[in-house]
Write a structure and sequence with these properties.
- The complex is a heterodimer of chains A (174) and B (265).
- By secondary structure, chain A is mainly alpha-helical.
- Chain A is built from seven helices and three strands, in the order H-E-E-E-H-H-H-H-H-H.
- Chain A folds into two domains: 83 residues, no CATH class; 50 residues.
- The longest helix of chain A has 25 residues.
- Chain A starts with a helix and ends in a 5-residue tail after the last helix.
- Helix content of chain B is 58%, strand content 8%.
- In chain B, a hairpin with a 4-residue loop joins strand 2 and strand 3.
- Classes of the chains: A mainly alpha (174), B mainly alpha (265).
Chain lengths: 174, 265
């Protein structure tokens, strides 16, 4: 289970420090600089690595640079990953807001939850609600990685039941 | 009271524009990138003003022989030497005005200028950029609370010598003269400085309403380089993907808020 969070965090830190995301590719004679901001605007700079000789055009350098295409591909891929990491900021904000909403709900329904604890034995309450709690925890932690596959066993059981029901209802006539 | 409402409205509309529009630029720099952009907004503005001043000078140098001179000065920026060589409000006003007058002069004397239509248009576009961005900078500088040195008695940023003095100040000393910018205003300055006076060969603007505009410079359109076009396409892909993820987050937030008021039972 590989987590890209470290990379996300690095991109986030780069953005906080410089206000933008950057990526660079160097060819034999040409440099490519990528710059992106929080709004999604991107600047692609193509510049010569060294001073251009009189009468020479940078387009000719781009065309003859054999390393540039390969390195530019890597730079673009890195930049793509960084922008993905940048989405961590708004996602975290939504997460925080959701936590706030949960807190509001919890305080609102506190009396109800509290009475459930008080009226029943604490251990039996935990025991009774544990399947739901475990399923929730599993969904939260693994849902992102397994997605819809999480429900595969459940789907398998349902399909099996449907088959059995169908077999019993539609018995062979011959 | 109305001023505050207007300021808020301006901020909201500009933020909305930023969030609903994407801009991808592919720029060719003829010279290698020598140094990093300064972190101080004041010095960032000064770097921008210097670039514009140098470009105006070089364009003036190119055209002065073919244009009627209004003064005998040997500095060829169409109207003689600049009065303000710093990077304050007056410096950008002067840059903007001179660029505007220069465009007019080139257009009026087209017949006597022996350059191709392409060169003329390219230079006019550059002067137009200088004029527009200078006006944007001026507009930001006049906003409430942005410039603590509106009164030149405090510190004159239109004076080049004073800017040099500011550059040598310690961070603590410089703090009280520094511009108070929000993130968006800083982004405008940074982008202006990054693009500077370089050639934008490809520009794509994508609006949330579905409008996509791509501008291609004539020179590039005549001799396109597939690698550059491909890189521009890749940048568009990255930008759109990033936008999608931002929109998804906003939708999720909306769902959470709606869910709060309409809980599923």
């Amino acid at each position: 289970m590989k987590t890209p969070y470290l990379q996300d965090f690095r991109a986030f830190r780069e953005f906080i420090r410089s206000g933008e995301l950057k990526s660079k590719a160097e060819g034999e004679s040409v440099c490519i600089d990528l710059q992106g901001n929080i709004c999604g605007d991107i600047l692609v700079f193509i510049s010569p690595k060294n001073r251009i000789a009189e009468g020479q055009d940078i387009m000719d350098l781009v065309l003859t640079d054999t390393l540039l295409q390969k390195n530019a591909k890597v730079a673009f891929e890195t930049f793509r990953m960084k922008t993905k990491g940048l989405a961590l900021l708004p996602t975290s904000l939504v997460w925080l807001i959701n936590i706030c909403f949960s807190a509001v709900f919890f305080t609102h329904y506190f009396e109800l939850i509290h009475s459930s604890f008080v009226q029943n034995d604490f251990l039996s309450f935990i025991w009774r609600t544990s399947p739901v709690l475990i399923l929730t925890a599993v969904t939260v932690f693994f849902g992102k990685y397994l997605g819809i596959n999480l429900f595969k066993p459940l789907f398998a059981v349902i399909t099996r039941i449907i088959r059995i029901v169908r077999r019993n209802r539609n018995r062979k006539v011959s | 009271m109305f001023g505050k409402a207007q300021k808020l409205e301006e901020k909201v509309s500009s933020t909305l524009y930023d969030l609903t529009h994407l801009e991808i630029n592919t720029i060719i720099k003829d010279e290698m990138i020598a140094s990093k952009a300064p972190a101080s907004p004041r010095l960032l503005l000064h770097a921008l003003a210097t670039k514009y001043f140098e470009k105006m000078w070089s364009i003036g140098d190119k055209y002065y022989k073919f244009l009627p001179q209004v003064d005998t000065s040997k500095v060829f920026i169409f109207q003689g030497e600049m009065k303000n060589k710093g990077s304050g409000f007056d410096s950008f006003t002067e840059l903007s005005d001179r660029a505007e007058v220069s465009i007019k002069m080139i257009k009026e004397n087209k017949a006597s200028i022996p350059f191709t239509e392409e060169t003329l248009n390219s230079d006019i576009m550059m002067l137009q950029r200088i004029h527009n961005i200078s006006d944007d900078v001026r507009r930001i500088l006049t906003m409430d609370g942005v410039d603590p040195c509106k009164d030149k008695g405090v510190f004159d940023f239109d004076n080049k010598q004073m800017v040099s003095e500011f550059r040598n100040m310690t961070a603590r000393q410089a703090e009280k003269y520094e511009l108070n910018l929000d993130l968006r205003q800083l982004m405008v300055f940074k982008k202006a400085n990054d693009i500077g006076t370089e050639r934008v060969v490809l520009q794509t603007v994508i609006g949330m309403d579905g409008d996509i505009t791509t501008r291609i410079s004539k020179l590039f359109a005549e001799q396109p380089v597939s690698l550059i076009t491909q890189m521009h396409q890749d940048a568009i892909g990255i930008s759109v993907d990033f936008w999608k993820s931002l929109i998804t987050v906003v939708v999720k937030l909306g769902e959470s808020i709606i869910g709060l008021f309409n809980p599923k039972t």
